[in-house]
Amino acid sequence: MRFDLLTLFPGLFDGYFEQGLLKKAIDAGLVEIHRWNIRDWATGVHKSVDDTPYGGGPGMLIACPPVFDCVEAVQQSADEPGRLVMLTPQGRRLDQKTVEELSTYNRLLLLCGRYEGFDERIREGLEPLEISAGDFICNGGEVPAMLIIDAVIRLIPNVLGDETSSKYDSFAESGMLEYPQYTRPREFRGMTVPDVLLSGNHQEIARWREQQSLKRTQERRSDLLE
Ligand SMILES: C[S@@+](CC[C@H](N)C(=O)[O-])C[C@H]1O[C@@H](n2cnc3c(N)ncnc32)[C@H](O)[C@@H]1O
After folding, report:
1. Separation between Cα atoms, residue 7 and residue 36, nearest integer Å
2. Is the whole model's pTM more than 0.90, yes or no?
3. Distant-in-sequence contacts of 148-151, Cβ < 8 A, 24+ apart
4. What domains are defined for the chain?
5. For residues 63 and 124, what is the distance between their CA atoms, to the nearest angstrom?
6. What is the pLDDT of residue 164?
7. Looking at ligand 1, which atom is closest to the CA of residue 117?
8. Is 54's C-beta closer than 6 angstroms to any atom of ligand 1?
9. Nearest C-alpha to atom 12 of ligand 1 is from which residue?
10. Mean pLDDT score of the chain, rounded to an integer?
């Protein structure tokens, strides 16, 4: 799967691609990432990408011309056009269902905003999928874009070492929170591992995990059960 990051701060992603699961996925050819600086499509002496809002108000808005030119050029940089995603707090809130939908595309262009956001005509003219990381305001779309990549690559076949592990994650197939998990030592500072997990009885363990998953979801996120 290919991701194209359209940003005013490509350097923010330094390091992010160079470690962990994402690096492994890139090295294995399962994920391809390209960074593009929107400012490279700005014209004029100052290479300005933003301007003051019509009607007044604080801050600056990212203007149409460099964004349209950048998106069009990036689309043409590969044989297959990608789905454009705009990172915006006004978009659909990111959840596992959205992540699953995003993982069905072969190519995503992630358009990261800054300042007070985008000229409205960028939405109108480019018709992106609008995705929000949550009901809060970040300084830019770069961290939300990383969130999308981080969550989506887990669903790409062969990216996770153990193919079943994303299946049992919270929000995945069951739609519930994951059950509690333990590892060695068996006892730590007076806290013990539930006996059933040491029993070797796989049926009992599966039943216990299902019950715990349901209990935890009821206690913490009853909205998921509705
Ligand atoms: C400071 S925000 C602008 C917020 C805008 N004035 C508003 O109220 O909707 C600048 C940029 O950060 C990104 N951003 C901020 N919060 C975000 C969120 N929760 N989800 C996705 N992107 C976000 C967007 O790309 C946005 O254009």
Report:
1. 6
2. yes
3. 148/85, 148/87, 148/94, 148/99, 148/102, 148/108, 148/110, 149/3, 149/22, 149/33, 149/110, 150/22, 151/94, 151/96, 151/99
4. 2-153 (3.40.1280.10), 167-226 (1.10.1270.20)
5. 13
6. 60
7. 27
8. no
9. 140
10. 96
